[in-house]
Amino acid sequence: MPNSLRLAPSILSADFARLGEEVRAIETAGADLVHFDVMDNHYVPNLTIGPLVCAAIRPHVKIGIDVHLMVEPVDSLIPLFAKAGANIITFHPEASRHVDRTLQLIRDHGCKAGIVLNPATPLDWMDHVMERLDIVLLMSVNPGFGGQSFIEATLPKLRAARQRIDTFMNAGGQSIWLEVDGGVKADNINRIVAAGADTCVAGSAVFGSPDADGGYRGVMNTLREAARSL
Ligand code: DX5
Ligand code: ZN
Question: Is any ligand 1 atom within 6 A of the Cβ of residue 10?
Answer without folding.
Answer: yes
